[in-house]
């Protein structure tokens, strides 16, 4: 009665090893179950934060240009200044519509979007870049540091020129 079956006796050493292997696999699986979703969440948060930073940079850029246009205009004809602007990567273009709207075309996660800034002062650019009521500023379409000269050219308008 005290004798066990020989086949059962030979499996007993492997049962111990297979149990520790199974426990090791469970620990590894649990670790992956925690790391993979956490990595995904951090990646999404980083991407959204990057988009919010770019949007804030464009908002600051537009507000700075419009505020400076007003300041130069009210300083009188012949007044001028130069702004140093850091254009973010997601800016695809900039145009002035009807002399009163500064529009930045930006790329977002949802496609292309327009960010519009209204100015009480008439704005223009060099004559060759204007078509009807739309003046384009293609130099502001590429990212990086740009210098924008703002000059009161008459009692009615201010000229913007990328130098």
Describe this structure in words.
The protein is an alpha+beta fold. The chain has one domain (48-162). Helices cover 43% and strands 33% of the residues. It has one helix spanning 6-75; strands at 80-87, 91-97, 101-108, 111-118, 122-124, 130-131, 134-136, 144-152, 157-162. The chain has a 5-stranded antiparallel beta sheet with strand order 4-3-2-7-6, covered by helices on one side. The protein has a 4-stranded mixed beta sheet with strand order 1-8-9-5, with helices on one face. A hairpin with a 4-residue loop joins strand 8 (144-152) and strand 9. 16% of the residues are buried. The model has no long low-confidence stretch (mean pLDDT 88).
Annotation keywords:
163 residues; alpha+beta; five-stranded antiparallel β-sheet; four-stranded mixed β-sheet; 1 helix; 33% strand
Short recap of the structure:
43% of the residues lie in helices and 33% in strands. It is α+β, with helices and mostly antiparallel strands and 163 residues long.
Low-confidence stretches: none
Which structural class should the secondary elements be placed in?
alpha+beta
Question: How many separate helices?
Answer: 1
Please provide the count of β strands.
9
Distance between the amino and carboxyl termini: 101 Å
Overall shape: rod-shaped
Number of domains: 1
What is the residue-mean pLDDT, rounded to a whole number? Answer: 88
Order of helices and strands: HEEEEEEEEE
* Strand content range: 25-35%
* Major beta sheet summary: 5 strands, antiparallel
């Amino acid at each position: 009665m005290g004798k066990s079956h020989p086949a059962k006796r030979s499996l007993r050493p492997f049962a111990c090893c297979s149990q520790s292997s199974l426990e090791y696999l469970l620990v590894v699986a649990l670790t992956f179950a925690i790391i993979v979703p956490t990595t995904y969440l951090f990646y999404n948060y980083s991407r959204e934060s990057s988009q919010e930073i770019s949007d804030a940079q464009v908002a600051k850029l537009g507000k700075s240009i419009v505020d400076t246009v007003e300041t130069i205009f009210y300083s009188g004809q012949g007044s001028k200044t130069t702004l140093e602007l850091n254009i973010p990567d997601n800016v695809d273009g900039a145009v002035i519509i009807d002399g009163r709207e500064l529009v930045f075309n930006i790329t977002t996660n949802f496609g292309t979007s327009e960010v519009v800034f209204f100015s009480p002062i008439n704005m223009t650019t060099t004559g060759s870049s204007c078509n009807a009521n739309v003046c384009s500023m293609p130099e502001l379409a590429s990212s990086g540091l740009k210098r924008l000269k703002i000059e009161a050219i008459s009692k009615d308008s201010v000229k913007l020129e990328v130098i």
